TrEMBL record:
This is SRPBCC family protein. Coiled coil: none annotated. Belongs to the AHA1 family. It comes from the Bacteria. InterPro entries: ASHA1/2-like_C (IPR013538), START-like_dom_sf (IPR023393).
Length: 212
């Protein structure tokens, strides 16, 4: 499997805000080029059988207007689906928990070849006390871990469910989380956030994920 530094550097990260009706939503965006064609990447992120191999088991009605549930994680409604190009879903950890959507966009990588640019944007309205304590890294680190798993899966190097659980507590995993948190801190700073807030939220988020 790829070195931690290499995996972290393959992802472009951005932090921003967006108005959602009368509220301000936070946004995190990740972009990475995968060494697999759009058809393969699309299948990996939409096939329940394959999602379970690199992310989590998922159940539901897999059509626009249908609902899905990731085991022990988010669930929601499938809002839009344009095969091999775009998937948009609501992303909620229970009913009536505010606004949260995830959109995945795919495009062939420039220059040809069997490579795909995958862009994921998560837009959410969260309580101010949570955002001020943890910042964008709270969701950003989770998506970095998902991109890591997807990359391993597409390369044929995925972990078994048992090995994945063991890996999560390994020194390698903690190093990955720490580097991810630092990169989200840099993206947060680039968005114009106050330096003290960036430092405090970065430390808190890394400690939360690593159990430090």
């Amino acid at each position: 499997m790829g070195e931690i530094v290499d995996e972290i550097s393959r992802v472009h990260r951005e932090v921003g805000t967006r108005r959602v009706e009368s509220e301000e939503a936070g946004t995190v965006l990740l972009r990475r080029t995968f060494d697999a064609g759009p058809a393969d990447v699309w299948d990996a992120v939409t096939s329940p059988e394959r999602i379970a191999r690199w992310f989590l088991p998922v159940t539901g009605e897999f059509r626009v207007g249908g609902h899905y549930q990731l085991e022990g994680n988010a669930g929601g409604e499938i809002l839009e689906c344009l095969p091999r190009e775009r998937l948009r879903v609501s992303w909620l950890f229970g009913p009536d928990l505010g606004f949260s959507e995830v959109e995945v966009r795919l495009a062939p990588a420039p220059g040809g070849g069997d490579r795909t640019v995958l862009e994921l944007e998560h837009v959410s309205v969260v309580p101010e006390e949570f955002r001020s304590q943890y910042g964008p890294g709270a969701v950003g680190i989770g998506w970095d871990l998902a991109f890591l798993g997807l990359g391993w899966h597409l390369a044929g190097e995925g972990l078994s469910p048992e090995d994945a659980v063991e890996w999560q507590t390994s020194p390698e995993a903690k190093a990955f989380v720490a580097r991810s948190g630092e990169e989200w801190g840099r993206a947060f700073a680039a968005s114009g956030a106050d330096p003290e807030t960036v430092t405090a939220t970065t430390v808190a988020t890394i400690e939360f994920y690593t159990g430090a």
